Each structure stands twice: as C-alpha cells, then as structure tokens.
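Sharing a chain and its predicted structure for anyone who wants a worked example. Both blocks are below, sequence first, tokens second.
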Amino acid sequence: MDPSHLSPLPADIDALESDDWLAEFHKVWPSEPVVIRNLMQKEPMRFKGMPQALTHEHLVETYNDTMIAAFTHMTKDKSAIELEFKDYIARIKANPEEKLYARAIPDIHNMILDRIDDKWLVDEVLGSKYTRKMSEAFMDGGKLPMFFVGTNYSFSQAHCDFGTSTFMMIEGQKRWVFYAPDQSPLMFPYGQKRNVAFNAGLDVFFPADERKLFRDNAKGYEVTVNPGDVMFFPSMWWHGVQNIGDLTVGIDLPLVDTVGSWGRNAPFTLATFANPKLAMAVVEAMLTGQSFRDVFFDGYLLDKDEMKKKQAELDAKLNVDVASKVAAAAAAPASTNP
C-alpha cells in the first residue's frame, strides 16, 4: 500500500503510562478517533477476564452450532452466507487463504455483556447515556456488542455510517485507516441497501491509478490495535480494516448517533433517515420482533438459492485445497535428525 497520504493516528494514548487517560481522551473526543492502549489491563474490573476469556477457543465452546453470517466477498455487500460457528472456524483454520469474514455476530450468549461494564463505557467514557438508551431500543433485546472474527486474508472495505463505535481488540491485530467526514467527496461514495451505510468506491489500501482524485488529495490516519486496546471512533468517519494474524477476534459496541452524524455529514444522514424504504423496514422489524441489525443484514445475506450455490462452491474449493495440502505434505522429503 502507498502510505504517502496516511499519518499515524494522533490520539494514541497508553492507559498504563498516562496519569489520567480519561482526561486525555476527553481533550480529543468526539472530534476524531482515539485509541486507548492497554485499557483492559488498566481497568480490569470494567473488562472482567478480557481479553483472555473471549478468544476464538472460548467462542467455539459457547457458540458451537449457533448459526452466524459470514461474508464471502470483501467488497460486495450482498455476499453473506449462514453456517454454524464451529464450521466457520474449522473452514478458516483448514484453509486460511479462503476469504470468509464473520462480522457483527450478536452477543446472544451474553459472553460480552457478562464481562464488560457497558454503561460505564458509554455513559461515563463517551458521555452518551441517552444515545445508549436509544440504541438499545433498536438492537437485539437491548444487546449492543457484537463479535468480529476473521483471518489476515479478510478485510473491511472503507465505509461510513451513523454509528459511533467502541471497538475492543481481543485476539490478533487490526490495522485501521480513517478518513474524516470532509474527505467524503474523495471517496467515490455510494449507498448500501436503503442507505444504511455508505461505501467507498475504491480500495483505500491499494487505490487504482484511475482514482487520481483520491490518490492526490486524500489525507487519512492509520493505526494498528493489539489485544487489550480499545478503539473509539465517531459516526460518519470513513474507516477500513485489515485483519492481521492467523485468527482475529474483536468486539464492537455500536451506538446510533443521529445528532453527531448530522453535524459531521448532514447529506449522508438525511439520505439515511429520510429514506422511506428504511423507515418502512424499521417499522416492520419492530412489529415482527426483529432488530435493527436484522434490517442491516437484510441487504447482506444471499438469497436462498444463491446461498446454497455459494456454499457448494466453498465446499468444493475447501476439499480441493485440503487434498492439495495433504498431497504436498506426502510428497515432501522426510526430515532426519542430525
């Protein structure tokens, strides 16, 4: 990647070294993204047993045959299939190069909410008590946190939306790139289904030559987060993510931030909340007992027949890849001890 338009994230605070990390945080927030290093170690009573208690091994034990959604394409929104969590982990371990990415797995087993002090995080750290209450009204039974589980072959296309996020790194690393809302004209933006979010019409990690406007003018930040770090970023900031490591686990605590979104990007906020199709989908979800997350994923899951076809393709590819590795291992000369 050409890093010439990226600078290190300015607000990079180590909670273990700071005399008052919260005061330093509030000097910057909510103007721009902030990473608090080692926050889970600094505040162990707020993050009970984390990050060690929520690694992928623990998730497999609890989620096991729970059905999750995994994206099969990193830049196509409508590409997600459903499969059991244990099968997802088995797949990405058997063939790490297979581009599968499980995003926004709901905390249906309370693995996160039993450990984090979410009210402290939102009400005291972010100062968003009323935003939390509104967000809980839309999410799965009031449960805001969600897991993201991937490999170093999976990434998230740069996008922005009306959600303010607190992202907790559990296992592996994630490289984040951020662009301020005023960079939106350079991102070649287009709306996802019902304008629930907006994608960048280019690869921010490897921008093509024809995206000269972006290459010559965009200015962004980059930062890599490690287990125990917590990343905070405001709504309507463009963000893209590269996973680093054989297997990565992170947790997002999203908040619906209408007021902040309006101040940062009024046109996009209007395009979202004035979209009649979105309003109708939200009302229908509320009447049928669904959540706002279900409204989002309605535009991500493949249709039933397409999903079966994609699952068959992935099964065939996995069998071929595994067979090739077994054959290569058998053909390799046996090692001898000196």
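Comments welcome. The two ends are 43 Å apart (CA to CA).
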